[in-house]
TrEMBL record:
Organism: Mycena venus
Family the entry assigns: Belongs to the GMC oxidoreductase family.
Catalytic residue list: 553, 596
InterPro entries found in the cross-reference section: FAD/NAD-bd_sf (IPR036188), GMC_OxRdtase (IPR012132), GMC_OxRdtase_N (IPR000172), GMC_OxRtase_C (IPR007867)
PROSITE patterns: GMC_OXRED_2
Cofactor: FAD
Recorded coiled-coil stretches: none
Identification of the protein by name: GMC oxidoreductase
Residue span(s) of domain Glucose-methanol-choline oxidoreductase N-terminal: 298-312
Position of the signal peptide: 1-17
Keyword tags: FAD, Flavoprotein, Glycoprotein, Oxidoreductase, Signal
The organism's place on the tree of life at top rank: Eukaryota
UniProt key word Oxidoreductase: yes
Database matches in PANTHER family: GLUCOSE-METHANOL-CHOLINE GMC OXIDOREDUCTASE (PTHR11552), GLUCOSE-METHANOL-CHOLINE OXIDOREDUCTASE N-TERMINAL DOMAIN-CONTAINING PROTEIN (PTHR11552:SF201)
Length: 618
């Protein structure tokens, strides 16, 4: 059924069919590999110029108008389903009981934004400045925030609802005309209401709007939910659908790129074709002179495709029998993944509506019946309650200082590269200035969201989660085989640096304190996972290793850094040693941020579009 895949705008009314021969015979100025967050943002902006011909190759299917994607309350429902998800796994983790962790990623038009939990937060401005200071001129917080606002249309909440639920925002921090729509969830669980007062009791201040450039404190955040249609706003609905009728845009779904073919001369390496598999058949689309290839395949696939294209560490390429086009040892190195776990509590009051109710088919049918006419209720839910706190809040001032000093000494004494030391120094400096850097994120999830036990029918739960925003442990992602359809070796080195696990033990204890504070104490009947039997530090560590996991926020596998520091791309996002290959996706961040990725990455892709179009230099 190859022809079906070649429909332009498959689910859109304006669809018209073109044949494979048509697609391959056209010539393109930009070949974008990956139709996810960054890829579709670029496709939209680059086709604003009607003279630019753009092709997008996307491995997954389109899921436009799919209720499992569009209806917010189904968040998580497509995670783990192969029609939407690549279903990656890590290699066994030596410091986490040799466990292989599931790593989900969106394999669909819209990429991971289509399966994401829709949380919309921003890093602090100073975090982007720190990325710039690693050797990336032009990358400042002020500038990137401008692009983040360009991407956004924020719909303010109804004032009475906002007042009743403590939903605050600073209007000038938000965009009003961008493609990505965000709004506050129209459903806030009764069991979540004590959030801000509980933090106040624990001495954590409220912040008015975490998207305004400072994010340390407790806050309520919007989600990528369109405030008018009350459906998920994601890369496909935001950046693709509105422009899918542009005649200079061709989007090919079901097309899995396998490598970039390039020509090596004395001066440079130039991409000449992109090969891809479609329904088991190999095709090649040529890159005309002056055209560019933009890899937007995400942090996991981007290093693999670069290596299969001969761009990477010669030692790794030689084990795969791949000829070296560009000697670039940074490819796939310096990868950092954020880790989280939850503590679940059973509610005293079984009448409180939570996502647990959706396990009852009759309840689900009724909730679905209500969402269209009423645009309210649990099916409109997004995650709302967040706090970003410094290490000091979690462990107290004295222990924080001693942990930071010990880690700084360990780094100074160790045999690490200068680049590694510089990146770690950004974390150390952030830890030393508690109000500057949100080191640990805490959230409330409306329902049962842990894995050690199973929820009891008819019971309701709230899960408090803890997230390590700046892990010291650093790993890699490399092609493990010359077969492009085999998954790469994903090795985050979880807990290789002891401090990462030590801190998480304290985070679990802190979540227990939060759960017995303020209004939560009266709402929670008992702790379900890990439960009262888990008490010693060692028991807590085992729980975290066995029942924690990735938060899908992985950076660094094609880092933007100077080449001599192990960088893969320049500040213009050009792959070093090539004349016409760029990477634009989350792999380019050399270090982590405190935020959920989408907002910053939409801004990065908007900025990249201006760089590529020559509107700005960096
Ligand atoms: C389950 C989950 C929940 C998340 N929740 C949140 C959240 O609440 N808030 C938030 O801010 N972020 C969240 N994220 C993270 C966010 O979605 C990602 O960081 C973001 O989408 C990354 O954008 P990207 O462009 O780098 O990659 P993606 O958006 O993943 O896009 C990559 C695209 O490339 C395609 N592709 C890959 N390989 C090939 C190939 N060989 N050929 C052709 N196409 C290919 C993929 O199918 C995909 O469409 C979540 C992610 C996941 C997986
Ligand atoms: C996976 O998604 C497909 C497409 O939406 C759906 O038909 C199928 O029921 C889902 N499978 C599971 C196990 O949920
Ligand atoms: C993990 O695997 C390694 C190598 O196979 C082994 O030496 C080690 O004992 C294992 N660790 C655990 C905790 O099982
Ligand atoms: C595409 O559709 C939009 C809205 O339906 C319309 O405004 C625009 O002119 C159309 N563009 C083209 C190139 O047909
Ligand atoms: C239980 O929760 C429901 C729904 O939130 C509420 O109406 C009711 O008053 C609660 N009952 C008690 C005893 O708190
Ligand atoms: C939707 O609103 C109607 C009218 O107010 C109400 O009767 C119905 O119960 C609501 N449905 C849901 C699921 O909220
Ligand atoms: C330091 O690390 C490098 C690279 O891993 C290695 O080649 C070197 O031998 C190490 N030096 C010492 C003193 O351990």
């Amino acid at each position: 059924m190859a022809l079906r895949r070649f429909l332009l705008a498959l689910y859109v009314q304006t669809a018209f069919a073109i044949t494979p021969a048509d697609v391959l015979s056209r010539s393109y100025d930009y070949l974008i590999v990956g139709g996810g967050l960054a890829g579709l943002t670029l496709a939209n902006r680059l086709t604003e110029d009607s003279h630019s011909q753009v092709l997008v190759l996307e491995a997954g299917e389109a899921h436009l108008n799919d209720p499992l994607v569009d209806i917010p309350g189904f968040l998580g429902a497509t995670v783990g389903n192969a029609s939407y998800d690549w279903l990656f796994t890590t290699v066994p983790q030596a410091h986490a009981n040799n466990k292989s962790f599931a790593w989900n990623r969106g394999k669909m038009l819209g990429g991971s934004t289509g399966i994401s939990f829709m949380a919309f937060t921003r890093p602090a401005e100073n975090e982007i400045d720190a990325i710039g200071a690693l050797g990336n001129p032009g990358w400042t917080g002020e500038n990137l925030f401008k692009y983040m606002r360009k991407a956004e249309t924020f719909t303010p909440p109804d004032p009475a609802y906002a007042a009743a639920n403590n939903l605050k925002f600073i209007p000038r921090a938000h965009g009003t005309t961008g493609p990505v729509h965000d709004s506050f969830s129209r459903f806030i669980c009764d069991a979540q209401k004590p959030w801000l007062t509980a933090f106040e009791t624990l001495g954590v201040h409220k912040i008015e709007d975490s998207l305004a450039g400072e994010d340390v404190g407790a806050f309520m955040a919007p989600s990528t939910i369109d405030g008018v249609s009350v459906t998920r706003s994601y890369a496909a609905s935001a950046y693709y659908v509105p422009v899918s009728n542009r005649s200079n845009l061709v989007v090919l779904i079901g097309a899995e790129a396998t490598r970039i073919v390039s020509l090596k001369t004395d001066e440079t390496v130039e991409a000449t074709a992109v090969e891809f598999l479609l329904d088991g058949e190999m095709h090649a689309v040529s890159v005309k002179s002056g055209a560019e290839v933009i890899l937007s395949t995400g942090t996991i696939k981007t290093p693999q495709i670069l290596e299969l294209s001969g761009i990477g560490d010669p030692q790794i390429l030689s084990t795969l029998n791949i000829d070296v086009q560009v000697d670039l040892p940074g490819v796939g190195e310096g990868m950092i993944d954020q880790f989280f776990f939850g503590v679940s509590f059973e509610l005293k009051n079984d009448s409180i509506v939570t996502l647990d109710d959706l396990r009852d088919p009759a309840f689900l049918a009724e909730a679905l019946g209500g969402i269209v006419p009423n645009k309210t209720g649990i099916m409109t839910l997004g995650v709302t309650a967040f706090a970003l706190v410094p290490l000091h809040t979690i462990v107290g001032d004295a222990r924080a200082e001693s942990l930071i000093d010990a880690q700084a000494r360990k780094i100074a004494a160790g045999n690490f590269s200068d680049t590694q030391k510089q990146k770690w120094d950004v974390i150390i400096q952030g830890l030393r200035e508690p109000m500057k850097r949100g080191y640990i994120e805490l959230t409330a999830f409306t329902g049962f969201f842990t894995t050690a036990s199973t929820p009891v029918e008819g019971k309701k739960y709230m899960t408090l989660t803890g997230h390590l925003r700046f892990p010291f442990s650093t790993g890699s992602i490399h092609a493990a085989s010359a077969d492009p359809t085999a998954q790469p070796a994903i090795d985050p080195h979880y807990f290789e640096q002891d401090i990462d696990l030590e801190v998480m033990v304290d985070v679990l204890k802190y979540l227990r304190r939060l759960g017995s504070t303020g209004g939560f104490k009266d709402l929670f009947a008992s702790e379900t996972d890990p439960g009262a039997a888990v008490q010693t530090d060692d028991e807590i560590m085992q729980y975290i290793k066995n029942h924690g996991g990735t938060e899908y926020h992985t950076v660094g596998s094609a880092a933007m850094l100077p080449r001599e520091k192990g960088g893969v791309v320049s500040p213009e996002l050009k792959v070093y040693g090539t004349s016409n290959i760029r990477v634009v996706d989350y792999s380019i961040l050399p270090i982590q941020t405190s935020a959920h990725p989408m907002s910053a990455l939409y801004g990065i892709a908007e900025k990249a579009a201006d760089i590529i179009r020559g509107i700005i230099t960096v």
